[in-house]
Amino acid sequence: MLEAVIAVVKEAARTEVMPRFMRVKQQRKADRSVYTEADLAAQEMLVRRLAEISSLPIIAEEMTETEQVEKWLAADGDVWCVDPIDGTSNFVNGLPHFAVSVALLHAGRPRLGVILDPCSGELFYAEKGKGAFMNEVRLPLKTQVPELKNAIAGIDFKRLPEELRRRLAIEMPFASQRNFGASVLEWCYAAAGRYDVYVHGGQKLWDYAAGSLILSEAGGYMCSFDHDDFWAAPLWKRPVIGALNLGLFEQWKNWLRRPT
User: Fold this and answer.
1) What interhelical angle do 205-217 and 183-192 show, nearest 10?
2) DSSP letter string over 86-114?
3) pTM of the model
4) What is the largest CA-CA distance in the chain?
5) What's the CA gap between 134 and 234, in Å, rounded?
6) Which domains does the chain carry?
7) CB 217 within 8 A of CB 164
8) What is the C-alpha separation between 239 and 82, in angstroms, rounded?
9) Tens-digit pLDDT profile for residues 88-120
């Protein structure tokens, strides 16, 4: 099944996404988030082809919230989760940093995840219990620094609580900060060791479904602001604190959760 999903993700990127790169206009949904005809075309293709692999309910980003909830409730154990283009704002502005993401969930947790960056050609994937990989190279790619003060931190500031944003900007407990605007790739960068620590204030199911498995299978750790068990946080908007190294994870988690 993994090989079949990888083939479908590559096909969607090749036939529906990249031919439209820098050639489509953005549109806005009711919540003001951005989408394009490329998102819709890639989603339609992925939904059709994944159903051929296994006829399961499919939750996709460009569905309405009502459809997404209905699909989730209708799932009898297993469900596909699709993000046709994560990083659509980058896509429409010509920034070559976006990805196609597909996950297979069982009982609410991922058992298979595939994420493709079609610009770089980097393919990240994992199966439960079988490790995580980038283009057949096992993750992580590098050893992490042991101290938070020397860490590269992946931080999406705009979705964090205001007081935490202020504290991060003023105190800067890390060495340097990055955010490139594609959540699914942030998970992969944490799994690869490119980010030493990672934090996001609240992701949708399709943002974390595949990436959380890839980080976990790379040997990483994750939680939310209020739950040590990441999977206990709210399904539709789940914050994440993550890192590969356990000691670094504990330092990061404790700093972020520190009372103001």
Assistant:
1) 10
2) E-HHHHHHT-S--EEEEEEEETTEEEEEE
3) 0.95
4) 51
5) 29
6) 2-138 (3.30.540.10), 148-257 (3.40.190.80)
7) no
8) 19
9) 999 999 999 999 999 999 999 999 999 999 999
